[in-house]
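Give me structure tokens for this 272-residue protein.
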Amino acid sequence: MNNYIQISIQNNTSVQTEVLIAILSESGFEGFEENEETLNAFIPEEKFDEIEIRETLSQFDVKFSIHTIKQKNWNEEWEKSFEPVIIENFCAIRANFHTPISNVEHEIIITPKMSFGTGHHATTFLMIKAMQEIDFINKSILDFGTGTGVLSILAEKLGATKIFAIDNDDWSIENAKENMEVNHSSNIIVQKNDHIDAVSKYDVILANINKHVILAHLGKMKQQLTSQGVLIISGLLEQDAVEIKLEVQKHGFEEKRFFSKDGWICFILEIK
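Here you go.
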């Protein structure tokens, strides 16, 4: 197994933590663990640029340490700290070693490993909240940046019959496939890709990535939506709300719903 680099950042505020997660995500970090006083960020050793990260963190009034860990050990730490996530009576996300949760409409089993998307982070939580308001029955779905595959799995549970899940990370693809098998998913195609194909049309596009990727693909996502299609986007900070609103309008989208949590935001958009 390949090694991972863990950056442990101390003395950061809750708002600062959210900003750091967004910045480090764009630098290739694939997993995060938040404690009361520390943010741990994980990146494959071969993707780690120490000079770049030191320059990035020097902009913040924080102390940090860097050390190498084994991938297996990181996964064991996940199992120690990963608690179920329950979103009202709509959806519960748990690991396979947790007791089943019966008092929700949809239960999803996720083994996160190094992939993003357990519901613990505000953006995944917001995406699931938004999905609760959309009709997925017999719909075609694109999950752009699938991570653990949690949103694709939920889309199928909500009645979607054709789901295409893509991610640009090998580990995420492997993990998503494992999670889909555990959840007995049968209508999801998973593929490694960093862009949206120019052929297929989708009724719903789910994009929980980051601001730069979303803005770069707004035009393409509009092209790939059916005329009555819905786009749900997150991975966006509250401070970017004005810019995002202007860009979605410029690309011919209409804002239907807006959600926020812990400094992060999510939009449900439709074509004007």
